[in-house]
Every structure is written in structure tokens, then in C-alpha cells.
Amino acid sequence: MTPNSPAPLGSMLDRARLPARAAFVGILLLATLSSFDFNPDSARIATRLGRALDPQIGARDAIDALRNLALFAGWGVVWMATAAAGRTSRQLLWAVVTGAVISIGVETAQLFSATRNASLIDVFTNTVGTAIGALCFVFLVRLAASLKGQRSFVGIPTRAIAGPYGLACFIEAAVPLFRQDEVFGISGGPFARMSIALSSFTWRSLLDLPIEDFFLFLPAGMFAVAALVEAGIAYPAARNRVIIYGTALALLAELFHGPNGQPIVAGAAVIHALAIAAGAILAARALPGLSKALRGATRPRFVLRLLGALIMLWALRPWVPEFLPLSERLSHDWWVPLAALGGRMDVFSVADVVGPFCLYIPLGALLAVWPWRRTGWMANLWPAVWLAFGTEALQLFVQGRFVDVTDPLIQVSGAVIGWTIIRRAGYRPYGESHP
Fold it and tell me: Which is nearest to 129 in space by CA: 97, 104, 105, 96?
């Protein structure tokens, strides 16, 4: 495949740099300073400052640290994604410094709030999160660049599809959307919770089978086999590796329920392992024939449609229609980003951000080299935008689901980052996937 003339990526980043960074700073302020009850009493400020400099660490702080890491990792990603051409080390330093400055500013402001808690630990976790996000972005760009020109089924490394999709599946297995009940009597730190969860485990949970997960996890095995085959591994060996490691990861994800205080369900681990194994077997048998039957733009067109269908399956779970008045579907703050997650202090509030973000990275990455259209309402990343907001709107008619503007914003962000990683790695559009 020979790409067409390069798109002016530099000028696009120049235009997006200030708006993207300003928008993310706004999100950071919204997430960290919401419900701000201004209280300038000097004695109380001194008390809050003393508490901030000598924090007492508890189980709740571990969840808060995870939230901070995820939130400020986004700042590191946004900074590096919109950085101008130049020395990477300098941009990494600027990302960390700006993340630390924003964090210090936020924690200082929280000293004047009666409802927010300033903490030196938050400054540390926020800064570390920024560094993690920035370094991960640079690593992924360089990894994609190193694979450029090598064997590829769709013009980009299939790892760009298999990795994020597999991570989304792992997150769903570890922190399920529809299985958030806690073990009775759960308390204490992660190790104490794990002990209680293991003591409550019963083999009768083998009968608790989340069948719908099978259809979501099966593609993870397929994508993983395709990625290994691109790396030069034979189909049978790739299949066997995916089955072995997929089974191990399914068990590990279920064991993660313990520290989170959730029941460990043997049936869920079985379904996830079987789905990944079935996907691996299916890919090993079907991919050789499909790669010959689907040529040119037909192949990425097929994968784009597959990704779109999978995203719809994820978004519209549990696939049961329900018609309720809008007043029962829309909360008063449904249009405020992160409002629905702001009141939650659990691992799910992190998983509900990272999982959907990962699902859209492959879609954005593929659209970077195979745009639906070059111009018009389906050009560039517009298909991802329509899909994200369209599936969110359809949740108005799905049992147990509620509309929240946070979801499509996170999903579109994932597509944007996937697109940017591939384009910054030097890939250019090959042509329209739907001419």
C-alpha cells in the first residue's frame, strides 16, 4: 500500500494546541473544584494546611490516587499529543512541570474550601499521573513508528487494535459494569478484602455465566492472533499463545475482584477464557482466507464496520429495550462532564473512564489511515463522533442505562488520541475506506 500525499499534521496541531489544552484544564478544574464551598476563615485555612502537609492515608486514599492518576494522565497525553516538533525530552519535562503547577494550584485553592480536602499526596499522584500519560503517549508513537513498513493487515499495526481492545476487556472483567455488588461484611484494606472475598467464594458460582460477555471478549482473541501473526508468528503458535495467556488474564482479572470487595465468580472467568480461546481458534482458521478474499480498501472497510458494531454492542448493554419518560433517564446534571462520577469513590469511577477510552483508540487509529471520506460529514474523525453521541442517545431506550455527556466526550477523546498516535508515528492516509 502506498499512502497519498501527507496531510498538514503540523498545522492541525498548531490550531488544536491551545483549545485542547485549555479544554482539558477546564475539565481538571471541574473535576477537582466542583462543589466548592468558599470559606476564607484564616484559622480553618491553617487547619486545612496542616492536614494537607500531614495526610492520614487510608483505603479511601488508594481510590483517590487511582482517580488522580487517570485524570492527570490525560493531561500528559494531551500535552504530548499537541506538542510542537522538537526535542521530546523537553516536551516531557514541560508536561510534568505544567501538571505539577496545575496540581499545586488546585490543592492551594482547596485550602479555601470547606468541602474539599487539600493533600500533598494529591500533588504527588497528579504529577506522577501526568508523567505516566506523557511517557505512554511517546512510547506508543515510537512503537507505531518502529512497526511502519512491516507486515500489516490494514495499513497500521494490528497491535493498535488488539492492545486497546484487550485492555478494555480486561478492565470490564476486573470491574464489571453490571456486577458491582460487594461481598457481605467486606471491610479493611486490599489484603483484608481479598481474604474475605476468597472465604466467601463458592464453586456454585460456576453456574453464574455472563453469556453476553462472550460476544464482547471473542474479538479480543481474534485481534490478538492477528497481531502475533503480523509479528511473524505462525497461526497455530499464535492461537496457542493467545489461549494460554488469555486464560491466565481472565483468571487474574476475576481475582482482582477480591481487593475491590466484589465476589469472585468462577463462571465469569470461564466465559471470558472460553470467548478469548474461541476468538483465537476462529482467527487462526479464518484469517488466512479472509486476507486473500479481502483486498485493498475492502479489508479496512470490513474492520471499521466490525469495530463500529462491537462498540455498539458494548454501549447498548444489556441489549434489553426499555421505554421510560425522559425525566427518569436524564439527571439534572447529565450535561456536566464528570458530574455523574464525581460522587463515586470506587474503582468503577476509574474503569468507567479508561475502558470506553480504550475502545475508541482502535477506531481512531484506523481512521487515521483509512478515513471514511476525505471531505464532508464523514471525513477524518467524524464517524467516531457520530457513533459516540449516537450510541449515547440510544441509551435512552436501553434498560438500566442513563445518558451522561461524559461518556461520548471520553470516547471521542480516545478516537482522537488513537488518530494522533498513528499520524505522529508517520503514517498517512491511503485513501477512503468507503469511496
Answer: 96
